[in-house]
Design brief:
The protein is 34% helix and 31% strand. It is built from 7 helices and 13 strands. It has a 7-stranded mixed β-sheet with strand order 7-6-1-8-12-9-13, with helices on both faces.
Length: 228
């Protein structure tokens, strides 16, 4: 019977703002790689039994050393990912123990992860099959036809900004990602894979922004949030 719950941390992403040579999860935030904050939260989480880290091929050995230095005992292995989101996540899923029934997927470039994020998304996944952290959009939203001319307003009450962690029943997210691969559809957000196979996606409201490191301004904001 599959009952274990593991985390998969994706550390193979890059940012056009920094340049193709920069792995954003490894950029220093308050003198530590951004990735270490997420690994620390998973290490401390009572809901997580093991962790798989997906890294760029040329960073795998380096990251294994980092895991040892920081003492992340829940990290079971580090595997190589690719520049494509779904293949990296599938690489992480393939490395899970066969006893794992639920998985919490998180971007290593989002250091402002909380214990509550992990717990609440997993609670939703175990009840509904999915639990996706999301921030309700409160600002007014407009669409444009061309340039900066407003075409029409959008009802902001129906809009959410999807973030991570995202928790799933393993068989559902695997089925969705494999369907995307088969149909040659590029998935930028893991929850799209469930929609692709007709499964509902359950959102879990975040209590604040979970900054993703993609530029200098993001690093400044992440440092401010982590200090407080």
């Amino acid at each position: 019977m599959m009952s274990s719950t593991w985390g998969v941390v994706i550390a193979s992403g890059k940012s056009e703002k920094f340049g193709a040579d920069f792995d954003t999860a490894f950029l220093n935030v308050l003198s530590r790689p951004a990735l270490t904050y997420a690994l620390e939260r998973y290490e401390q989480s009572p809901d997580i039994e093991g962790v798989i880290v997906v890294a760029p091929k040329d960073r795998v050995d380096n990251l294994r050393g980092m895991v040892h230095v920081f003492g992340y005992n829940k990290v079971r292995t580090v595997v190589a990912g690719t520049s494509q989101r779904q293949t990296s996540v599938l690489a992480g899923l393939d490395a899970l123990d066969e006893s794992v029934g639920y998985v919490s997927i998180h971007d290593g470039s989002r250091p402002c992860l909380s214990a509550n994020d992990i717990a609440e998304t997993l609670k939703s996944a175990k009840r509904y099959g999915s639990g996706v952290l999301a921030l309700r959009l409160v600002d007014s939203v407009k669409t444009t036809k061309k340039g900066s001319n407003v075409a029409k307003p959008v009802d902001g009450d129906t809009l959410w900004i999807v973030q991570t962690p995202q928790a799933y029943k393993v068989e559902l997210i695997r089925k969705g990602l494999e369907a995307a691969q088969k149909k040659k559809i590029s998935i930028e957000d893991d929850s799209e894979a469930l929609s692709l196979i007709g499964e509902e996606v359950r959102l879990v409201e975040a209590d604040g922004p979970r900054v993703k490191i993609s530029g200098a301004a993001d690093m400044n904001m992440a440092e401010l949030l982590l200090r407080h």
